[in-house]
Amino acid sequence: MNASVPLLEIDHLVVEIASMPALRGFSMRVATGAMVSLVGRNGAGKTTLMRSIMGHLKPAQGAVRFEGTDLSACPRHARAALGIGYMPEDRGLVPQLTVEENILLPLWVARHLDRKARLDFVYEVIGELAEMRHRKALSLSGGQQKLVALGRALGIGTKCLLLDEPFEGIAPALSERLSEVLASLRGKDLTLLISQSDMNHSRGLIDVEFTIERGANLAAG
C-alpha cells in the first residue's frame, strides 16, 4: 500500500436519517497504525459515522475509502473480509451463543483467515475471554459483554478496529482493563478509531483527535 494513502478516508460525508441530516460534510483521514479518537456529545453523529463506514447507512453525498478503494459499491458483509472489525455501542452479541461463538461469527464469512489463529490471538490479548469461552453471552455482565464485543472485532479486524463508545456504561475497573487491552494493541499494525463523549479514559492512548459536532467537523464550524 502507498504510504501516502490513508488507511481510512472520509470525504465530505453527508448522511440523512428519516430525511434529517445526521452527517453534514464530515471529513477525516486516518493513517495506518494510528490510534484515533472521535469525540462528540450524544447525538453529534459518532454512531452514524461508524455505521456509514460499515455500510449500514448509505451516504447521500461524499465517500468512504479504505486503502484507497471507495466502499460505496462494497456489500455490507464484505467489510469483514477487508480486515475491518466493528464494536457497536450496544455490543450486538447473540445472547444464546457462547463467548467463543460470538467471537467466531464474523470469521465464518472470512474464509481467508485461520479461525484458530485468530481465536488464539484474541485470547492472548484478552485472557479473561479464554476463561469465559463456554459461557453464554446472556450470562455476562455489561462490562464483560463489552470485552466480548471487543474480542469479536479484534478477531476479524486484522487492519482496522472501529470501537463505538467502548467505555460507555461500564464500571471503572473494567474501563481500566479495557484501556490496558487497547494500549497493548499499539505496535501490532492495527488502526483504531474510537468514538467517545470525552477523552477521560484514553488520553494516553490517542495519536490524533477529531471532534464532531452536529454531524460536521468542529473546526469547519
UniProtKB/TrEMBL annotation:
SMART domains: AAA (SM00382). InterPro entries: AAA+_ATPase, ABC_transporter-like_ATP-bd, ABC_transporter-like_CS, BCAA_Transport_ATP-bd_LivF, P-loop_NTPase. It comes from the Bacteria. GO terms for molecular function: ATP binding; ATP hydrolysis activity; branched-chain amino acid transmembrane transporter activity. GO terms for biological process: L-amino acid transport. Keywords: Amino-acid transport, ATP-binding, Nucleotide-binding, Transport. Residues 8-221 form the ABC transporter domain. Involved in beta-(1-->2)glucan export. Transmembrane domains (TMD) form a pore in the inner membrane and the ATP-binding domain (NBD) is responsible for energy generation. Belongs to the ABC transporter superfamily. This is Amino acid/amide ABC transporter ATP-binding protein 2, HAAT family. It comes from Bradyrhizobium lablabi.
